[in-house]
Structures are given as C-alpha cells and as structure tokens.
UniProtKB/TrEMBL annotation:
Residues 1-18 form the signal peptide. It holds the Pfam family Peptidase_S10. Residues 24-46 are annotated as: Disordered. It comes from Flavobacterium bizetiae. GO terms for biological process: proteolysis. Keywords: Carboxypeptidase, Glycoprotein, Hydrolase, Protease, Signal. Residues 24-36 have a biased composition (Basic and acidic residues). This is Serine carboxypeptidase. InterPro entries: AB_hydrolase_fold (IPR029058), Peptidase_S10 (IPR001563). Residues 37-46 have a biased composition (Polar residues). One of its GO terms (molecular function) is serine-type carboxypeptidase activity. Transmembrane segments: none annotated. It comes from the Bacteria.
Amino acid sequence: MKKTLISFLLVGFFTSYAQESKPKAADKPPVVKEENSPANLTFNPDSQVITNHTTTIKGQKVPYKATTGTMPVWDEDGKAIAGLFYTYYERSDVKDRDSRPLVISFNGGPGSASVWMEIAYTGPSLLNIDDEGYPVQPYGIKENPYSILDVADIVFVNPVNTAYSRPTSKEIPTTKFFGVNADIKYLADWINGFVTRSNRWASPKYLIGESYGTTRVSGLALQLQNNQWMYLNGVILVSPTDLGITRGVVSNAALKLPYFAATAWYHKMLSPDLQNKDLTAMLPEVEDFTINELLPALSKGGSLEEQKRKEIATKIAHYSGISEKVILQNNLDVPYDYFWKELLRDKGYTVGRLDSRYKGIDRKDSGESPDFNAELTSWLHSFTPAINMYVRNNLNYKTDFKYNMFGSVHPWDRSNDKTGENLRQAMAQNPYLHVMVQSGYYDGACDYFNSKYNLWQMDTSGKLSDRMSWKGYRSGHMMYLRKADLETANEDIRTFIKQSLPKAGEPAKY
C-alpha cells in the first residue's frame, strides 16, 4: 500500500516448445525476435500444453487437468498485441461443468507473477517450505492438501511482462497495459476471451486478487459487468491495498497503530498486561483507542494541549513497543520504515515490511529504515527455484525464456484510481455479488486495520454489509505461507464460495 514491490529489468521475449493451439485471428500470430539473444528466441502468444494429474484434498482423491500456455490480448482490430501466460486447473471428474465455480486469480505488484498464490495457496501443488513459511532445501513441489480445487476450477493469470507474458512487439505502447485503468480494461477483454474459449459462461465466477491484485479485481468487477456483461458471484481481496479510497494525513497517521501493536506482540515487546493476552483479545483495545482517542487527538495537530499530547504518546508507546521519546520526536506519527528499524534495534534486528515475523540484519543498527525487506528475499529464495521446476517438470511447459517473478511495468499510471468505488457499484448493481477480505495481522504493506477501514468507507450506508466479510490470520501479507493459516484461509474461501452460490432458481433482486 505504501510502496510497490521491487521490480526487475525486463528481459527478452518468450518462446515455447509447447503444443500450439489455433490463433483467434485468421493470420498467424505475430512472432517477435529478440535480437540480443544468442538463440534468437521467439514469442508465440497463442500456445498450450495439457497434462493430467491427481492430488489429494482433505483426504479425497481429486483428478484434474492442467492447461498451461499463452492466450492473446487482442486489440480493436483483432490483432494480437500481447500473450498472457496462464495455468488453468479443471477437476476432471465433474459431470456438470455449468454449475461448477470458476475462480480467476491474480497477484499484484503491479508487475508480480501469479506464482505466489498458484504454488503456495489455492492451487493443487505446494512449494517446499517449513510450517512457518521459511525456505528449506532441497527445493521442490508437493501436493496441496488444502487447495480449493475440490470445489472450484482455477485459472492463474499473469499480466503483461510477468512470468512468461509478453507484448508481441516492442512497438506496442506500454500505456495499453501499464496503469490502473489500462490494466483493468485489457484484462477484462482477456477474461472474456478465456471464458468463451473455455466454455465457462454458465459457471458461477469469482475473482481473487492479492495486494495490488485487489486493486485489479475490484476494478474488474465493474468493468466485466458493464463492458463485458459478465456478472460475478464473489470477489476475494487478499491483503488489500487502499483501493483508491482517500486517506487524509490524520487517518494515515492513526490507522497503522493496530498493526504496530500486533507486530510488537509477536516479538514480545509489549508490557505484561498486553503481552499476556492472546493477540485477538488484545487488539480490540488498540483499535478502540485508535478510533476514539488517537484520531481526534491527531486532528488537533499543533493545537493539541501539551498534557494531552504526552498522554497520547504514552498510550502509543504502550501499544507499539516504541519508546515515548521516539513517539514525541515523531509528533505522534512514527513512519512505517522507522518502526521496522526501531522495534528490535536494541536486539540488533529489523523486522519485515510484508511480514513482520521475519527479522533482518543491517550493516548498522543506526538509521531510519531497514537495508532490505527480510521477508521478500526469503520468499524469492524458496519460490523462484520451485516455480521454474514446476512449470517445466510438472506442467511440461518448456521454454528458454526467464520466468519474471517481477517484471518491468514502469511507469505505472496510478491516476483516477476509483477501484473501491467500482467494487461498491458492482455490488449495488448485482445482488448476487459478495466480497470477502483476508488480511494478515503482521502485514505492514497492506495492514489489516486499513483493510477494515476500506470496508467501512466503501459502504458508508451499511446496506451492503450482509454481503461483506473480513477474516484475519496470524501471519503477514502472504498469510498462507504459515501452514495453520494455509488450511484456515483455504477453508474460508471454500465456505465463502458455497455460501455465496444462490439456490437454484433464486433471482438476483432486492
């Protein structure tokens, strides 16, 4: 929310030795050569490989088909201007495909591949990590016993320049892809094409997005509805951004305190009266203080009485694990970066941004921010080998191109972000549409209390509240990396899907 994830430089375009399917256009799809590549690699935007597998989910054998490939993004003239890499998992023993839910999955960044949720959350395979999400060797892939594939088919989509997705030509303007609204527009077109090709128009449809992916799917809900005439049953927001919902200086300063408290509790930096409580028993007290005392106090700014200022600083220190002196030095508003550096400074560690359970070691204990994101480098350590092995060895999709964990998508046009309001409008217009938010208490990038604030501000009338839900987990941005939360969070999705499906013949009306 406060920062985008790091991006790596874009390398050559994609090629595949995969089995090709016929392109949509009459002419052959364009082929782009990367002249700087010694192998002169080429990109086919329309290709696929099909493999068949069996996994075990909740003790039940589940056979499935995996379709791995690229499918074009078409312009107004029917010309392929990009190819999106995707993996489509279909349970293969289903007799009634029309009533089977379809989940369309996006990660974030912007510029992040779908790798994270595909091999660590909802997909049928799971990377090899320990029970808290840390890398272990040897690297590898195993069955995911908690996957939602038992109740829904899933397609994992990679936007342009992520994974193996590429534009078809260097001459294609990046403005067609790289921006809040451009992203939503072309992905809605692509989803329409995918649903048509896959013959899934009859299926109940769900979008799930993580991090910036929540901005993406919130906008897609209305774009699909108004421009593709495709109506959804549910949207799942995993670690949501601010969704274009404006925060003022005061709310920005106040709303992060519950996250500070959760992180301090995890690292045992709170006083016994708080530390001896369970996390979810302690946090309501901090949330109440934040809304009812901190926000009004910060609203007064420099006019806040000195005695009241000291009282507020004392309470912030009590809840955050940061000294009162530091709180006052920062005018009651400690920046996130400074908190990550300060909380464990005396112990010689920093804490992670995306997941504050992770600790890092800086060159110097002094300073105002950590040298690096301890959690992200840990995740790349385990995910990068796993996805490269998985695509080639398990899905039989072979290429000499680089799988972009993070691709170059800059400059990204962030103007006119109204995605939270877009989602509200989609819900108001579609009585079938439900929303669930999933947040990790230790996520400092898209913190849990701001995700609650999103729901409050998105639906100020309260008329949609019966179709909105919020779930919290004892981990960070990728809450599913912790085994206990992987099981719980998938079960929450499974329950959400089942509860949001209307009864046969039930009309969509108020």
